[in-house]
Write a structure and sequence with these properties.
four-stranded mixed beta sheet, 7 helices, 20% strand, binds guanosine-5'-monophosphate
Length: 208
């Protein structure tokens, strides 16, 4: 149980961005640096990339299994991105946040919207922007995991995703990886304090 406050519940930390802005690496780094933050591993119907490891980057499943999970309410949120289905498993997440553990989600704006509605008081949401459109394109090409046709498609999708940046409380430009990670961790620390203070205040002054 978390020591900050016995009524403290964990945060749901959402990180969204267009693909290529560095969000996946950021999420992994944050969960490594802060042991109270657990990384949520999504389910997807997308084909596994060569660099990816089953169960570590995603749980790769077929559409039949995905629809079954959705039907059986095993997903906290789900969305279709680039024609593939993605979803966050509900299993363990509620238990973790009830025990004061924070969970970090690398998800798109559609999923962010769904989680925001379910946990309005426990969410901290970040939108990570690439330094520029030119830089985003360079990063997508350099990544080399998709062919040029897909890079172009992802650029188009990136513009659609970027349109949602102002739905997020914190918007950061990832022009320096270590600095961006540090900023996010600092903000999380402040949000934890603020949320656990609110719990104390409500408890102590609820009779007024
Ligand atoms: P990629 O296939 O490049 O790993 O991810 C494509 C997009 O899907 C990214 O914007 C990523 O954040 C998003 N995504 C990954 N997992 C989930 C999920 O569980 N739910 C939602 N809504 N989006 C996800």
């Amino acid at each position: 149980m978390d020591k900050r406050n016995k009524n403290y519940k964990g945060l749901l930390i959402i990180i969204s961005s267009p693909s290529g802005a560095g969000k996946t690496t950021i999420c992994k780094k944050i969960s490594k640096k802060d042991k109270n933050i657990n990384l949520s591993i999504s389910y997807t119907t997308r084909k596994k990339r060569k660099s990816e490891i089953e169960g570590r980057h995603y749980n790769f499943i077929n559409i039949k299994k995905f629809n079954e999970m959705k039907k059986n309410k095993m997903l906290l949120e789900s969305a279709k991105v680039f024609g593939n289905n993605y979803g966050t498993p509900i299993k363990n997440i509620i238990k973790k946040i009830d025990n004061g553990k924070d969970v970090i989600f690398d998800i798109d704006w559609q999923g962010a919207n769904q989680i925001r509605k379910k946990f309005p008081n426990q969410i901290v949401d970040f939108f990570i922007m690439p330094p520029s459109i030119k830089e985003l394109r360079m990063r997508l090409i350099k990544r080399g995991q998709d062919d040029l046709n897909i890079v172009n498609k992802r650029m188009k999708m990136a513009f659609k995703e970027i349109k949602h940046y102002d739905e997020y409380k914190y918007i950061l430009v990832n022009d320096n990886f270590n600095k961006t990670v540090k900023k996010i961790i600092d903000i999380i620390k402040i949000e934890r304090l603020q949320k656990s203070n609110l719990i104390k205040i409500r408890r102590n002054f609820n009779k007024i």
